[in-house]
Structure prediction request, 324 residues.
Amino acid sequence: MLTRRTVLGLGIAGSALLAGGGWTASAFRRAMAKSNARISPDHSKVIAGRFGDLEYAEAGTGTPFLMVHGTGGGFDQGLMFAGLLATSGYRVIAPSRFGYLRSAFPADPSSENQADAFVDLLDALDIDKIAIAGGSAGALSALQFAIRHPDRCAALLPIVPATYVPDRAPARPWSPFQQSVAESVLRSDFLFWAGIVTMRDTLIETLLATDAAVYNAASAAEQARAREILWSILPVSARANGLLNDAKLAGNPAPMELERITAPTLAISLDDDRFLTADAARHIAATVPGARLVIYPTGGHIWLGHDGELFGEIENFLKEIGYA
Prediction:
């Protein structure tokens, strides 16, 4: 989630790099060219749903699997996260949620409406029932999909869910000034790029909610995955509406009727996630009938050191329930 400290830091980083002149401009252009190529319309499709355009992309073949991205994502992040499933017999379908990339930002961008929009996508793809995973803030609409459309949900997999926890004090709302500053920062690709260049470890700890010590102790491959997740937030300007909406929905998540969920459910989190999603995962597992829980001790919000293990747990779970 976006914090006041992060917003301030991005502004300071951008101001510092403005003094870089020609080098700064050249490096920024190269980074943006790479980022824009990754989200090119050549890599995704758009359907017209009841809430406007909904972007999605696919990878792999086989049993369908809906991967819902987290804050700062889009279809590209969804494909990145579920890449291991796409190579092991699953047809990964990754939508861009409301306000991200080419997906519309409707008047009411609620988690409930986003869940209904997923149904429009399944109808367009002629898919009757699907397993759905939601990462971080993406778990909000994944849970609503399972609650509102039980006949379309084959399995529910909340991963590091940024969802409701009983008895947790609500976050202090942003002032109008802070909201204005956040909007300005998130609509500036330059400021976000400057932040990655000058304060990468800080962003890993704040935006990716993973201790720097965990990052430093991770394998080279896992460190590269963390950096890829951070860089993939660019162009942040194309994700700003979604990011700001996530700050509202996941900043103070509302309780849901979890007891109504009938789909087989596996909740996964990590004890050292700086967003404290392990508490949310435990609440889901304790409330959804028959749900299971996997908690890793370390790895932060992006489960460093557990990528293969985590998606292996998901694959084994899906096979066990006969969804493979």
